[in-house]
Amino acid sequence: GLSRDELRELCGALGPAVHAMLAQVEQPGVSLITKDEAAAIGCRLSLFGLTVLNSAAAAMTRALREMASGGHPAPEELLTFGNLNKLVGFDEHYTWEAKHPVAGGPAPASFG
User: Fold this and answer.
1) For residues 14 and 42, is the Cβ–Cβ distance under 8 A?
2) Which pLDDT score is estimated for 80?
3) What's the pTM?
């Protein structure tokens, strides 16, 4: 990846009309550029998509390890069923499904 100085130079050369974006990945021995630093060097957007994927994969790995050994993730490590429905959009889906029934089709599901 580029150093902070290289990023600053590149973003400066692009100018304010270009909406520069910074995507970072955690690596041993490499410090991440903060959102304030990114803004100071001209980046308009700082992405941490792999951070989100990495933390989700770590949580899944912990849960699978626990379940493989006969246990179950602690309640505080889980969303409530209602919050899970909201997060993945089931509530909106069920509302949409109820407004747009399929003629002759099954009744819409409802788990709320």
Assistant:
1) yes
2) 94
3) 0.58
Which pLDDT tens digit goes with each residue over 10-25? 877 777 777 778 888 8
Beta-sheet strands, E only, within the chain: 20-23, 43-47
Tell me what percent of the chain is helix, strand and coil, each rounded to the nearest 5.
Answer: 50, 10, 40
CA 66 to chain centroid: 23
Q: What is the CA radius of gyration of the chain?
A: 22
The label of the residue with tokens 């520069």 reads 20
Tell me how far the alpha carbon of residue 24 is from its chain's centroid: 14
Q: How far is CA 91 from CA 12, 74, 103, in A?
A: 45, 25, 22
Cβ neighbours around 22 below 10 Å, total? 22
